[in-house]
Amino acid sequence: MQKRDLSFWQMWNLSFGFFGVQIAYALQSANISRIFATLGADPHTLSFFWILPPLMGMIVQPIVGAMSDKTWCRWGRRKPYLYVGAIVAIIVMALLPNAGSFNMTVKAALAFGAIMLMLLDTSINMAMQPFKMMVGDMVNEEQKTKAYSIQSLLCNAGSLVGYLFPYIFTWIGVKNVAPEGMIPDSVTWSFYIGALILILCVFYTGAKVKEMNPEEYAAFHGIKEEAKEEKSNLFQLLFHAPKAFWQIGLVQFFSWFAFLYMWTYTTGGIAENVWGTIVTSSAEYQAAGDWTGVLFAVQAIGSILWALVIPRFKSEKVAYSTSLVLGAVGFISTYFIHDQYMLFVSFLLVGCAWAAMLALPFALLTNSLSGKSLGSYLGLFNCTICLPQIVASLVGGLILGLVGGDVVDGIQTGQISMLVVAGVSLLLGAVAVFGISGKREA
What we know:
Shape: globular
């Protein structure tokens, strides 16, 4: 079977739903620490809430990958998982920002929020993974780089919108402060509108994309009958994974370890370093929360711009390592900056690392794989994203106690130091890049 080329708009439609999914993911990334801090979480335990998202991703994505590899039905192969994930996500997005509005105790509100966060990340992971798989399923080798670039563009565009939503709602007059223990309306409405966009985008892709049937898929990928009948579980695939899988995984560990601390401690760090407050119910702290979304949007812009530069490098490893070093400089510089606008420079540099993390690990891994059991391997590879976040969450409070400042009224000061820790982690990742093998093994 000739591997046909897809038009730009066919590749666009294939990944368009990712735009909506990424809005939800960006809202989660930029606002979870703000939500739980507002509900009454202690900074020392704040990172524990971040265990849930990667833990669910580590469980869900390999399962979705393996199950969807074997799923063939009237609705498609990957799309059924996409629909289920999106529907659950919009329900949870309506409930999570209302965790402080049900007259519960602080502990009950935090527990409710934690459960909603777990369900949100489960559903986002379930909706996100099929888009990566459908590109692998339906795009030929010559167009795959372009297709993933389109997906990366939509990913960053969705992030930009999600990060800016609370700031925009505040700007148009929606309340950005609320009684102690309650989430401001600017955040709540951001989640509502994000949920609406998510479901519209997902159903757009569902309507526009028709997946291949088993016979077409086998012919397209050159899968022989005996290969189709061969059985292998996730543990066997993991055992036979190429060396590059583990080598890239080490770089992933340092990279995602760093970004977990960005998502967890940016709001508290800049609230103290720029606005001079650690009081979560204050207008200044909530302004810092909005500004965190703006900074993450700047990071997304930096990522889009740097993604145009990465292909100009002759070596993928040099591009990868250089990007992580630039990101490290961005993180470490935040410690010395006390002007909110100067932080734009820091987060533009952080965007360079993010651009590399979205594209280069998958490019390097794909080059080491034959394409067999694609969904399963992509699901397993997601564990190299999730595991470092879990480790970072578990040790976050301990590290904060070592590098932070004094404890004032039960609140740990010096949270900005955790972004320096993130920068050091990225530097270690930049060194580890040069240990990645370029040989095709599996």
